[in-house]
UniProtKB/TrEMBL annotation:
One Pfam family it belongs to: Lipoxygenase
Molecular-function annotations in GO: arachidonate 5-lipoxygenase activity; metal ion binding
Residue intervals of the Lipoxygenase domain: 1-161
Listed EC numbers: 1.13.11.34
Class of the enzyme per the UniProt entry, highest EC level: oxidoreductase
Gene3D superfamilies per UniProt: Lipoxygenase-1, Domain 5 (1.20.245.10)
Top-rank taxon, per record: Eukaryota
Keywords, alphabetical: Dioxygenase, Metal-binding, Oxidoreductase
UniProt cross-references to InterPro entries, sorted A to Z: LipOase, LipOase_C, LipOase_C_sf
GO biological process assignments: lipid oxidation
Protein name: ALOX5
Amino acid sequence: MVDVSLKTYNLGVPNNGKFETTDQLVVTLTAVIYTCSVAHAAANFQQYDEYGAPFRFPFTLHGIPPKDKSPVVIETILKSIANRAELLGVMSITKVLSEKATQSLGDFEKQLIVDPPAVKIVDEFRQSLRNVGKTIDERNKTREHPYEWLHPSAIPNAISI
């Protein structure tokens, strides 16, 4: 059996999977870190807010969709929505998927970086995250609906489901 994903994992790496410059490595590692932190937070952490209110954003509907704009009777609506077990299942799954299970981005569970120049870079990164967080906090003060999902404190260090 051939695992296509495993055999083609390096297609996103320049030059047939061979790094030739530090910049190529930086671009690839940035994409990996982004995918495992920011992209994961953007795709997962709002799920309960969206699907946890099933009548506002139904996860599933049964039956045939209406083909015209004629009025629909309540019985048709009640038959089309998910039953109690389906609703509770979706709510439970999306609640679990919406939970952050690791430390925030830049707040590592184990401090393995001890090289002084590397420690300085991590400190600068953490300060950048704090600055972004302050900007979001300031903007949220004037918003009717504050945006919290991609606040640096809400972005995890890793994917942990």
